[in-house]
Q: What sequence folds into this?
């Protein structure tokens, strides 16, 4: 049995990085992605905070999946998620106040981050605790990687710095000697730190992830109904609930 | 700008010569646009010197090169022969100050062609004017370099600091000693983007384009007319101020050469008028109330995005009547 479970479990961990990357392939959590990928320090901080919440909420929701009545599952999930967000927010405020200031409203907004609710609904609500834990870790890493990749492009080209203000994070381990590379570019392209540049970088990185996933034989993330969805194999929606199928049915009628 | 129809390979070789009047090809249209830009190019050479011509060369080379390389990477047919990249390059350069670093000019060209044009499918598929998008990316990214205007070489009147404010500046300076005379404004002897200053050269190009039926005068006239009416009201009937406002900034350049881009302007007359009035309205709103000194490029790009909706509401009537008849016939059957 243990032998049999081994492969799928490692897959639960690795799928979140490219094949089902929450930001780049499932297109979840777009708002915090665009807002916090301006600097790498913010991206790392946001990634870690969201991963912590995701892992904890996945585990708790998975453990309670047989207790929570399905009719009120969304409010129940939100209560669990909100509790962990509050804990993480207090921790960040206490130990990394600079990050709290930089992330601003996006830190408490992790409550409504659709990656976390999405994983609770699509995965933790119907899988074992161990699998949900690994799913949370994998998705969290995927989110962080996507954020850091986007933030690297935006920070280096848009502000001419790299890891600027990283000392606010390393201060956690008592080290503040390194404050990031500065003045990499003498004339940075400021548009990349603004919203249009954010969307542009998002699109380019998304296309890149699509290309990588396609090489691995995964379906292209396209708007072509359930078949094109990277989550098709684990999606809990009945085919008739899916808006795509509904449209088709309506046309047929 | 786009072709009304794509020529076959055979036709393309025949129409290669500009002396043969073949069926209207995109290459011929682009060539007409390039010819119409030549007077302004000469004027920029006279007023801003060789540096201006070098900037034009850099953007043109950057545009053509990035078009060639992108098409090659995307494994699509080579389209640099239709000259549209040359037009984009020239128009982009006309929207830059002559003092801009060459690498910025080249970057603007690459953004215009790769991001705005080729990512969306190449000639005729761009959703906004590539040259304007390139200019706006540079303007937002490098605001200092984009707003440091060099003065004309033969500087009779020394327009000093005030013109570091771009387009609408002569209006800012209007009434002070720093303001250039109206005649200087007309021939282009003032600070500004290298291709936008010489109104007379731009008008010659515009008349050529209209005479060759490359563009319809509907958009330029409604655009400039709207700006004139609103300015006249805002300036309480001061005609000198009106003349300054109309000749300053990129208004004439934008109205004649940028707003008339085929791919990003409405097809029929009514749509063109709505488009022109919209451009004029946004230009005035930005000039009068915005924090930016010049609004022509933003106005045009905003209206570019609205074009599909303008087209929808201005679909010509015959099309509608035919449709109604069809529906009735179907009912009868």
A:
């Amino acid at each position: 049995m243990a032998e049999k479970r081994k492969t799928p479990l490692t897959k639960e961990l690795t799928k979140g990085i490219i094949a089902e990357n929450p930001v780049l392939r499932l297109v979840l959590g777009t708002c915090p992605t665009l807002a916090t990928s301006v600097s790498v320090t913010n991206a790392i901080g946001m990634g870690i905070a969201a991963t912590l919440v995701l892992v904890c909420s996945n585990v708790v929701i998975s453990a309670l999946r047989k207790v929570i009545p399905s009719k009120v599952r969304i409010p129940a999930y939100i209560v669990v998620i909100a509790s962990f967000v509050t804990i993480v927010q207090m921790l960040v405020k206490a130990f990394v106040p600079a990050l709290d200031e930089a992330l601003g409203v996006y830190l408490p907004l992790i409550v409504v981050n659709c990656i976390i609710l999405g994983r609770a609904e699509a995965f933790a609500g119907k899988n074992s605790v161990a699998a949900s834990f690994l799913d949370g870790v994998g998705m969290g890493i995927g989110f962080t990687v996507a954020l850091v990749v986007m933030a690297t492009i935006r920070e280096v080209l848009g502000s001419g710095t790299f890891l600027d203000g990283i000392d606010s994070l390393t201060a956690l381990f008592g080290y503040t000697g390194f404050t990031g590379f500065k003045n990499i570019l003498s004339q940075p392209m400021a548009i990349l730190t603004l919203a249009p540049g954010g969307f542009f970088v998002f699109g380019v990185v998304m296309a890149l992830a699509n290309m990588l996933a396609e090489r691995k034989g995964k379906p292209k993330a396209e708007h072509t109904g359930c078949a094109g969805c990277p989550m098709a194999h684990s999606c809990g929606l009945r085919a008739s609930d899916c808006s795509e199928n509904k449209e088709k049915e309506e046309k047929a009628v | 700008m786009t072709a009304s129809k794509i020529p076959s390979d055979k036709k393309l070789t025949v129409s290669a010569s500009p002396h043969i009047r073949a069926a209207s090809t995109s290459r011929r249209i682009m060539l007409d646009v390039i010819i119409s830009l030549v007077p302004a190019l000469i004027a920029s050479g006279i007023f801003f010197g060789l540096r201006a011509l070098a900037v034009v060369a850099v953007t043109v080379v950057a545009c053509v090169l990035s078009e060639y390389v992108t098409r090659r990477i995307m494994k699509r047919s080579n389209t640099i022969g239709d000259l549209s990249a040359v037009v984009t390059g020239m128009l982009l350069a006309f929207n830059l100050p002559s003092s801009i670093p060459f690498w910025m000019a080249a970057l603007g060209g690459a953004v215009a062609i790769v991001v705005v044009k080729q990512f969306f499918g190449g000639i005729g598929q761009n959703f906004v004017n590539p040259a304007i998008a390139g200019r706006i990316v540079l303007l937002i990214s490098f605001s200092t370099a984009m707003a440091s205007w060099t003065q004309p070489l033969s500087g009779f009147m020394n327009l000093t600091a005030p013109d570091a404010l771009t387009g609408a500046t002569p209006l800012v300076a209007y009434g002070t000693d720093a303001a250039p005379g109206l005649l200087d404004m007309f021939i282009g002897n003032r600070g500004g983007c290298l291709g936008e200053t010489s109104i007379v050269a731009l008008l010659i190009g515009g008349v050529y384009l209209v005479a060759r039926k490359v563009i319809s005068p509907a958009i330029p006239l409604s655009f400039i007319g709207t700006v004139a009416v609103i300015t006249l009201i805002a300036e309480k009937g001061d005609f000198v101020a009106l003349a300054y406002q109309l000749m300053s900034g990129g208004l004439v350049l934008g109205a004649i050469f940028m707003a008339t881009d085929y791919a990003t302007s409405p097809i029929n007359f009514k749509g063109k008028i709505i488009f022109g009035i919209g451009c004029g309205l946004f230009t005035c709103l930005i000039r009068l109330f915005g924090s930016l000194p010049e609004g022509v490029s933003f106005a045009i790009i905003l209206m570019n995005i609205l074009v599909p909706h303008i087209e929808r509401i201005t679909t010509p009537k015959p099309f509608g009547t035919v449709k109604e008849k069809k529906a009735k016939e179907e009912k009868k059957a």
